[in-house]
Amino acid sequence: MAIKELKQSNYEWIDLYNPDAKELEKIANKYSLNYYTLTDSLEPNHLPKFENQDTINFFIVRLVHENLKRKTNIESLTNKIAVFYNDHLLITIHRIEIPFLEVIIEKYIKTEKIYTVNSIVIKIIWNTLYTYNTSILKILSKVENLENKVFLKSPDSSSNILQNMYLLKRKVNICMKLLILTDEVINSIKPTKQEKPAHQDVKDLQVKLSTLYEQVIEDINNLLNLYISLASLKSNDIMKTLTIFSIFFMPLTFIAGIYGMNFKYMPELEKAWGYPVILIIMLIITLIIYYWLKRKKWL
């Protein structure tokens, strides 16, 4: 476990990186925290939530990270950060390194741009939400790429386009659900008059991201329906081609079937002109069918 402690005149910030259960128990005893609430921070799939306890507030938010594996579950797409805070104490707990925590310290705390725990909490939530903004930009690029594959018919589009659409849709749906749950955390924060503009920025970002994710979900659904429609249209074209071939060959097959029945009395078979006449009749039938299909605009 890596522990970073930042002591200011009016508060203390303790950052815990990948602690185990025993280390959390020590922290719980030292700062009189509810141990069972503290263990929530170790659960990998815990959803965002906010709890207002007697002397301290507790919340969990999840940030999106780059997923190199083709998995679409909460644990593989996001990581959580658990936060305990009151006016004089801030404890952050996370399993992976979170670069924006160091940015908050260097850019805002050491420069004295923010000087309260509530302000730090608002910055943590804002930076957490911003990871969804980075993610949606990548998703939009992938959706555009899928659109090009659908309309331009890339060589590999038929093999993996449906799977890619499914993975994108799953990811967007998960992110959308987490954004909705994070809204409860945002609304549970009680900013002071000086903190209200920053808090409103967080609210605005959440609304913007929710709108973007909703739009992307709609776009993916439309693209999926369009792809299925185009696939059906392609199947219909194939059936149409096979039907046209059968229209040409059905009467010709009928004629060939008649003269293949081996009856003893078929006088035209003994005539010298029998064979060429039958061929001419077949040709005329073929031309009539072709003309009829042309008039119907099936060719």
TrEMBL record:
Gene Ontology annotations for the cellular component aspect, listed alphabetically: plasma membrane
Annotated membrane topology: Multi-pass membrane protein
Protein family membership: Belongs to the CorA metal ion transporter (MIT) (TC 1.A.35) family.
Name of the protein in question: Magnesium transporter CorA
Compartments where found: Cell membrane
Chain ranges passing through the membrane: 242-261, 273-293
PANTHER family: CORA FAMILY METAL ION TRANSPORTER (EUROFUNG) (PTHR46494:SF1)
InterPro entries xrefs: CorA_cytoplasmic_dom, CorA_TM1_TM2, MgTranspt_CorA/ZnTranspt_ZntB
Chief site of localization: membrane
Catalytic activity from the UniProt record: Mg(2+)(in) = Mg(2+)(out)
Alphabetized UniProt keyword annotations: Cell membrane, Ion transport, Magnesium, Membrane, Transmembrane, Transmembrane helix, Transport
